[in-house]
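Researcher: Next entry: tRNA glutamyl-Q(34) synthetase GluQRS (Mariprofundus erugo).
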Amino acid sequence: MPCITRFAPSPTGLLHVGNGYAALRCKQWAEQHRATMLLRIEDIDHTRCQPHFADAMLEDLQWLGLSWPEPVRKQSEHLADYQHALTRLRQMGVIYPCFCTRKSIQLELLRMGGAPHREDAASHYPGTCRHIPVTEQERRMATESSFAWRLDINRATAMVGEPVWFDEQGTPQRDTIPHDVVIGRKDIGVSYHLAVVVDDALQGISHVIRGEDLKESTAIHRLLQQLLGYPSPLYIHHPLLKNSAGERLAKRIGSTTLSSLRNMGVCPQRLRHYLLDGCDQLWPFNEGEDAAIIAMLGTPDKR
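Model: Predicted structure:
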């Protein structure tokens, strides 16, 4: 079987250096294993993704020296694939509509004696809507403006077993899924978890190379693969690029973008060499330190 991997960014902003590092790690693995690296644009969240960011992604990745087979799969063009999978899960009885807001989840966690922090609403769902009768579910879905589809972890694992996934060495890995995760929303259709599982199956992805921040999602993806009858890729989770403060690079903290480096004339060959061979997972610069970055990475040869 051919080896196929993918780099799958979301166009919610400009690519930063950490994104470039992840893309290069993926491409390097593909070259070492004579594999194909696909590019996928994960733009299913129309509330955050913007077409001009997708265009900028392509320019930045090409400037960095990457190439990929055409056509590029854009999630926004394949919504029917995800809805079909969601319908199958609903017919299996392993998902249920959740009408909770973030605030109501926080209040329920507080009532149960938990800490009512904002992040708890996303990571510690208490199962409030799990046992609503079907007739009541139908009534509320018809009358309420917003709801989510959650995967019933207990029912799903009772049906297909605990999720087991494999790393590149074929070593089995097991992780606990702590709560019923959201796999669909009324406003954007389906979540990242379901869309990425469908995409990987349809594109024949054999190996997933991605950052270790997504490792905790792998058990969710494997469980969905088992439910839908999809094969499981092998998973490789690489270290993240971090700044000098120990934070992983991210759009929300204003990490140095690839376009800013391109605009200041940084040599892409030197940048690739630094990220793959010399950085040791550290990007010790902040946005705007042009002189330091150019001194480290150099500018293109003008001769």
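Model: Note for the record: The chain has a mean pLDDT of 91.
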